[in-house]
Specification:
With 469 residues, this protein is of the alpha/beta class. The protein has a single domain (5-461), classed as Amidase signature (AS) domain (Amidase signature (AS) enzymes), CATH 3.90.1300. 41% of the residues lie in helices and 13% in strands. It has helices at residues 10-19, 24-42, 50-65, 108-114, 162-168, 184-190, 224-234, 242-251, 273-286, 299-307, 312-323, 333-344, 347-367, 392-402, 406-411, 441-455, 458-461, and strands at 45-48, 77-81, 119-124, 173-178, 193-196, 216-221, 258-262, 290-294, 373-377, 415-423, 429-436. It has an eleven-stranded mixed beta sheet with strand order 1-3-2-4-6-5-10-11-9-7-8, with helices on both faces. A hairpin with a 5-residue loop joins strand 10 and strand 11 (429-436).
Length: 469
């Protein structure tokens, strides 16, 4: 192969595998070598098993050699957040000890990838039980954001190792979950693409829960083109006619879309973030995007509800208390110090909050009627230095602010894509947040892909991070 693997799209590599220019074993050895080179610093993985990866790659190669082609992700190395059950791997969910064996059960998302003989590189670090926006974990350590070579900065959470694994070069696709932004925050903070699916669209079976009402599986990728390909395999709707879905995505052009610019998402951004998103939007407008100002009603109230625990605090407390009560004593102190308050919340409070969110959801979706998507910065803060968020007060301040924009999508039952468009004043990635109504996932990806064709991929627009490949 004349072109480096890190420069190839998933589609390119799929063709290369079938034309004999590479093998699944070659891709596995590439991932292993990259992990050996960078893994000690970046620390993306909780569980790393190179021998299992090699064995899975050999199976994928053997199938292709026998004329058995199971799909475009056959032989592609994929990292998996350590909330998913994966055969042969323990599930810790960020805890100091393994969850019971039933949490190794593989659900439909993993089965979709297994069905194509994709290879699993390992289980990436997560915030314990996914309850955190920054990516920190006192039990196993926090992955290192590859965009800062001198200071340990937050990688974003709770899918903390997912985006890091992509720049480490140990995976070409990463699985995460998103309850309040846990795919999009690490994607934004690491300069990768994150897809937050609509609630209920992808099954959460086989995934350790935080909030079943809000939990959504999702992907992190090196480009929107890669995200579209992964979506075509995993999504129950798109996978029925994947070629038609991919054609619709590739045929989308910037001028097809009316884009609402929500100024509330730009408020309070740290230096370089709003400026970076505005600059990208200006480029898109010059390319034909139709930008209009839009106000989404109730965002302040949604943020207030989130800061008071949203729905996830109730549901998480109920799950842990009922299903894994002996894990309460092991909770991350940043979660544990709030647990008594979570348990004290009443069913009446929960139902009142749900009814209010239903009304806010209806109003927000109605306000989006005249546009195809709403945009703004994905995360309004620079990834904080880990040393600055060791105490509860600064941690909570950064945690809540990091999730301010993303959590509205979950609480208002929308879908979204984040894509990297700039570096902020600290030299850290800035994400453009593309938000669409529920079940308009395909539209969100098509818009992002149209944008990417003008703005470029992360590698083209931002370059390579100092600690990345």
């Amino acid at each position: 192969m004349t072109q480096k693997i890190e420069s190839r799209t998933l589609t390119d590599l799929s063709v290369d595998l079938r034309d004999g220019r590479t093998t699944a074993r070659d891709l596995a050895e590439w991932a292993i070598a990259n992990h050996d080179t960078r893994g000690g610093v970046l620390a993306a993985y909780k569980t790393w098993d190179p021998d299992r990866l090699r064995a899975e790659a050999d199976v994928a190669d053997g199938a292709l050699a026998a004329g058995i082609d199971l799909g475009v992700l056959q032989g592609i190395p994929i990292s998996v957040k350590d909330l998913y059950g994966v055969r042969g791997y323990p599930t810790f969910a960020g805890s100091p000890r393994e969850l019971p064996p039933e949490w190794r059960h593989e659900g439909p998302v993993i089965r979709a990838l297994r069905g194509q003989l994709a290879t699993v590189t390992g289980k990436t670090h997560t915030v314990q039980f996914a309850f955190g926006a920054l990516g920190t974990n006192p039990h196993w350590g926090t992955p290192h954001n590859p965009w800062d070579a001198t200071t340990h900065r937050a990688p974003g959470g709770s899918s903390a190792g997912a985006g890091v694994s992509l720049w480490e070069g140990s995976a070409l696709l990463a699985l995460g979950t998103d309850t309040a932004g846990s795919v999009r925050m690490p994607a934004s903070m690491t300069g990768t693409v994150g897809v937050k699916t609509s609630q209920g669209r992808w099954s959460i079976e086989g995934i350790s829960p935080l909030s079943p009402t809000l939990d959504t599986p999702g992907t992190l990728t090196r480009s929107v083109a890669d995200a579209a390909l992964a979506f075509s395999v995993i999504d129950p709707v798109a996978s029925v006619a994947p070629c038609a879905f991919l054609d619709s995505v590739e045929n989308a052009v910037v001028g097809d879309f009316r884009i609402g610019v929500c100024e509330a998402y730009f408020e309070g951004c740290e230096p370089g973030i709003a400026e970076g998103v505005y600059a990208a939007l200006k480029e898109l407008e010059a390319a034909g995007a139709r930008l209009i100002d839009i106000t989404l009603p109730g965002l302040d109230e949604v943020d207030t509800i989130f800061r008071a625990g949203g729905l996830s605090a109730y549901e998480f407390a109920g799950f842990i208390s009922d299903v894994l009560p002996d894990f309460v004593a092991d909770l991350d102190p940043m979660v544990g110090n709030r647990f008594d308050k979570m348990v004290a919340m009443t069913a009446s409070d929960y139902l009142i909050r749900r009814r209010r969110l239903e009304a806010l959801t209806h109003a927000a979706h109605a306000a989006m009627h005249e546009v195809h998507a709403v945009v703004g910065p994905t995360v309004p803060i620079t990834p904080p230095r880990i040393e600055d968020v060791q105490e509860p007060s600064p941690y909570m301040k950064a945690n809540l602010m990091a999730a301010r924009n993303t959590t509205t999508v979950n609480l208002l039952t929308m879908c979204a894509v984040t894509m990297p468009v700039a570096l902020d004043k600290a030299g850290m990635p800035v994400g453009l947040h593309i938000v669409c109504p529920r079940n308009e996932d395909a539209r969100a990806i098509a818009i992002a892909r149209a944008f990417e064709k003008h703005l470029g991929t992360a590698r083209e627009r931002l370059g390579t991070p100092p600690l990345g490949l």
